[in-house]
UniProtKB/TrEMBL annotation:
Gene Ontology BP terms: regulation of DNA-templated transcription
Origin superkingdom: Bacteria
UniProt-recorded Gene Ontology molecular function terms: core promoter sequence-specific DNA binding
Protein name according to UniProt: HTH-type transcriptional regulator / antitoxin HigA
Length: 132
């Protein structure tokens, strides 16, 4: 049995050391002293990451683009939630905001987080008519 000393994670070096320790303990049986150490280290790393490596949630359109890429979906797959193909294009091209009904449908159909879908995001600048 290897005894691992657990220390607070205050610096990036501490963080890297904790990650290395976690890697060596990944196969530790649950409930064993090593498994308990692993649980403590994971909790410390998660707390450090939340403070120092937080990733901001994407804007709603970036989330939809990621959904399409990750699941191999096309624009047509969004039509049940967003409406006809023209409306899907307007939303994805940032010419139209998501409506509350669209947000609900996307949340229900694709299990997307509503808290991301309701975020503000920039729209594309309106196109100017030629000759204006």
């Amino acid at each position: 049995m290897t005894v691992v000393t657990v220390h607070p994670i205050r610096t990036e070096a501490d963080y890297e050391a904790a990650l290395r320790q976690i890697e060596t303990l990944m196969t530790a049986p649950a409930g064993s002293p090593e498994g308990e150490t692993l649980d403590v280290l994971v909790t410390l790393v998660q707390a450090y990451e939340a403070r120092h490596h937080a990733i901001e949630a994407p804007d709603p359109i970036a989330l939809l683009e990621h959904l399409m890429e990750a699941r191999g979906l096309g624009r047509r797959d969004l039509e049940p939630a967003l409406g006809p193909s023209g409306r899907v294009s307007e939303v994805l091209n940032r010419r139209r905001r998501l409506s509350l009904d669209m947000i609900r449908a996307l949340h229900d159909q694709f299990d997307l987080p509503a808290e991301v879908l309701i975020r503000e995001y920039p729209l594309a600048a309106p196109e100017r008519a030629h000759g204006s």
